[in-house]
Design a protein that fits this description.
6 strands, 19% strand, alpha/beta, 158 residues
Amino acid sequence: MKHFFLERHCVYDKATKGLNKEGFLQAMIMAQEIKRIADNYHNVVLISSPARRAQETIEPVAKILGASYHIDSRLQPIDWRILSYQELCEIDDMIKPFINNDIIVLSSHYEVLGPYPQHALKTLCDKHETIRLADRGELWHLDLKTGLYEFLPKRIKD
C-alpha cells in the first residue's frame, strides 16, 4: 500500500440519513483530493460503512477513480461508541487482504475514524503520535512511503 485514506462521512440530513447539499459538495471535494494523489495508481480498493451517508461520501471517489466500492459492517460503529483496541485490530484484518494495493480508501464515522488514524500510524509506520479528530467531510491521508499524514481538504484558519 502506498496511500491510505480515511474519509469521515460528510454533512447529512438527520431525517433522511443521506447527505445534504453541503455534504454532496464536501464529498466531491474529497474525491478530487484523493484523485490528485491517487491519479497515477490503478490498484485501488474502496470500502464503506453500510450507512447511507458513508456510501454517499465514497461514491464520488468511486466514480472519479473508475472503481467500485465494497461495504463492510466492521466500519459501522457498534452501539455508536468509540472502538476498542480489539475492534481496531478487526479493521486491520479487513484491510490486510488489500495491503499490496496501491490505494486503500475507507469511508466511515467518527466512532471508527476517531481512534483509527493514530492506531494505523502506529501499526503501519511504527509512529506514536496523538492525532486530532477529522471533521465531517474531511479525510485523513497517510503516505506510506514517507510516513507523513495530512488532513484534506486543507482548512483555512480564521
